[in-house]
Amino acid sequence: MKRREFLNIGLLTLGGVLVGRNFAFADALTETQEVFRRADPVSSYDMIINGAGLCGFFIALEAVKKGLKVLIVDKRTSPGFDIAAKRKLWLSAEGLEEWDKSLLDLFFPTDEQEESLNNTLESPRKSRSGNELLLFAGSIKKGMLRSLLVNQVDVLLMNDVCGILTNDRSETSGVLVASKHGVFSIPCRSFVDATDGVLFTRELFAQKYQIREAGFVLEMDSVHKNSLGKLHLSGLNLLNDTVSVHAGKKDKDQYFVEYRFATEDNDLSHIEQRARLLSAMVSKQIREADPAFSKARTRYAALECSLNIEGEIDSRKIGIKNYYYMENSSEFYTCKTVCGIKEQAKSLVEKIEKSPDMNSVSQVYYIGGKAECNVVPECYKENGFMTPLSPFPVDILKLDKHKTVLLVAGAGTAGAMAALSASQKQIQTVVVEYFNELGGTKTVAGVNGYYRGYQEHKFIKELEQKIKTVAAETNLVTTLPRSYYYLQSLLEHKCKIINGAILCAAEVDKTKLKSVTVCQNGRLYKILAELTIDATGDGDVAYFAGENYSVGDSRMGITQNYSHWDIPFKPKIKDYNRDYDIINNCEILETQRGLYLSHYESHFYDFYPMLAIRESRRINAVYNLSTRDIISDTCYEDTIAQARSDYDPHYFSSSESSRCGFMLPHFDNMSMVNIPYRSIVPRKIDGLLLSGKSIGQSYKALQFTRMSADITVLGYVTGMLAAQILKKKCNVRELDVTPVQKELIASSYLPADATVARKVDLQDIVDKLSTGDETVLFKCCMQEKKQILPLLQAAFEKRPEIFLAKALAWFGDTSGSNYIIDELKTLYRQEQQEGHASSYFEKYDDKLLYWQINKDIALLGMMPATEDGNEMINYILEETKSGGEMVVSDDAYTKGRIDLQLIPYYNRIVNLCFYLERNPDVKFIENLEKLMDDPNIKGYKTSEYNQTRWRIYGANLELLLAVAAIRCGSMKGTECLISYLEDIHSNFRYFSRNELCSVYGKDGGYDRAAWRKLVKDKKSLKVSPLKKSIEV
């Protein structure tokens, strides 16, 4: 059966069964290739659906059957919120006989069975326990997303609908969506609200309603087998003083406990916070309630509450045509109610006709108001890829304003602690967080432990002891004790927490941050704070305020691999934390791509809701920390915190210091990194402090400061500094940090000598190199050229030595080139005699012969070419091949590291490219092109999402070879770069275009045809050496 035929059949089915564990991208991800390419601001969607729960899901599938072009939007990171996010992972079997194979495939994919350890379950598909059918949350999320995509429904996650656009006839003509990337309009001809409780419609049209009660689900293990349906728990103000108990699918000792409680108001943040405070009490008391729970542990919890809403919607007050809604009022799901939702969706879609007319825009409706709108849509593109979104100016909306003294943006690793320390100092603080759980990467991304970082820091030890105490007292385990402690502590210190909110814009008056715009459950409003801390991890507030920033390395913008953690349940091996790809989460399409890939790759049981992004924006600060500072052990008079890590880039790194072997992955400087106050102060924006990993620092420096222990401490210190600024009523640039430093030193949170600046003895470094001390070579190379080069030249003239020659080469001086060439010849002859194994697995050991050769190749590339140097490099190039196929690790953890599964000669080829780019010559073309044709090297461009995970490093190598070739004058390199203008990775498209522009001196954009015409018109291609500054 042909692929297209299968997709057509997919229009009639759900297809969830086909998403297997670690499902092959070659088979699955091609299905997402057309996402967003079917729509643009001109053509518009026939229907946009708000909410990807069961209602929105079935409406979307019915609409595409009717031939409608559909977009479904959800503020969450996954579809299926009414089952998966609320963790109601059971269905009554009533009505099972009405289910067809497609529903069974969606809810119970056969491939999930290998993950279930519960051998007591019965048919259908080993999912039944008594009268209940048990579910995996991961299966629901994976199956629903794939079913939408395979049926050609566009899916936009992490976006919240916050407005409706209409024409002068009051007909729907589009929607507004808010995301971490901004506020955008998307054109459409009809709109369906399928949000939880249809809350968006209730709020938009000021309908009266009341959330009467809420429900919350805890997942427990170590529970003895029991037949309890209800359990009595008194004194907790639960409805009827009872909890309901449901068996789990994962294992026999897994059970779900649901409790309900009366709500005081409609504030969803308050409701979610109360549910989590109750969770600790339920978890603690349930052990005493029944012997079956005597050893029970609460290991996970729902992401959001179930809501019981009173109040009928008066459709007469909905003054917009082609506006529809569908309410799911089911509190308890049965197979019959699922069929009912499906039929209700079908009936709704039957009312909607496809309109050929494109609607203009004259008004925008938003919660709390209505405004005239004459905004002309502009197609929003990201490095050549078109989106259906158009930037929308929120300043035309009259939004509510809320004032506070301090705003903390983000309650993750840094933000929660920043809010806590400021609140402890009696500063009125508001913290805004996207998730309902606090703690960021360490909780909602599942990275609960510490890999590196200064774990012996007194504050970290105190914090971890408090979290352990919470765990012991409440029986909460995994990430739950941490998020509970953060919540309890912030509320105890009267910090206001706003959950479920998206920061989407900022207002600046000259250079002063005036306000931050927030979207919370579809409502836009502004927060006006005297001071704001950007602890988003991505520098979102600083970005919206207009501060300059950098992402990734200086040339390609490439960042570290991102990962997405499965939720582990009695894992036999550590296979739940895997790297999937490299994405730039500052871009909309890249973020969506990351979410899609994670759903396809993740386990059926479940996976955490947050992508573990290791690297994002680095905001330009008054002082940007660099590798030079780190290697020189620099101390500052305004040091406020420290960090401790080895160099862990989750990438091979094409930078000079890595290619020359000074800073290979897991290089350890064996010292603390000092962070100055100036690095958390934005360069030009006032009223703002930075915290977390987005502070002012270089791409290389970030690898030493990004560990969670250090970011936690930095967050806490940032809150202290914010309190001092507010009490002194001074500008962020005017703050005297001495009082805070004294407090930190007195608390043993900062060593006193970290604030004492000291100079590096350059002559001592040179003297040690002269005596053959290689340990100071990297430190030497990290010094200012104008200061140390004369000392090196004088020392080499007096006493030529190989390490002095290498230091000179780093600074572009050819005086010692022959020493390096001679060493390279000797080393390479030795490798030819010993060989290089086809099973070589990259461990980045710079003492290996393989890396000794690589280092010398790169050092020769740091200086102008010599005839002998070119001859030797060309000889090595001629002898170099891929070495064989990608070498796969046999270790469970490293097997998930895409940056370590490489072909045997990967880094040799990278270093040859490093040399050839800087010293191009037509004599290299023949051997370069031969290498480009190696079957283990070519053909890694990915334009249809297929096998992205295991192709990205092959693609990166292919690109580097193409760039080296084009700079040597090769047309083969040109054609390769042109083809990569349509690669799915934004970084690769950006890099290919920039390199083509650099060599050809013209710009064909991302248009392959335009570039081919430019190339055809150019009769010959001259060599074009790379000119770039050293990245520190």
TrEMBL record:
Q: Which GO terms describe its molecular function?
A: 4 iron, 4 sulfur cluster binding; metal ion binding; oxidoreductase activity
Which domain of life, per UniProt?
Bacteria
UniProt cross-references to InterPro entries, sorted A to Z: FAD/NAD-bd_sf (IPR036188), HdrA-like (IPR039650)
Q: Does the keyword Iron apply?
A: yes
**Which named protein is this?**
FAD-dependent oxidoreductase
Q: Does the keyword 4Fe-4S apply?
A: yes
The record's keywords, sorted A to Z, are:
4Fe-4S, Iron, Iron-sulfur, Metal-binding, Oxidoreductase
Signal sequence: where? none
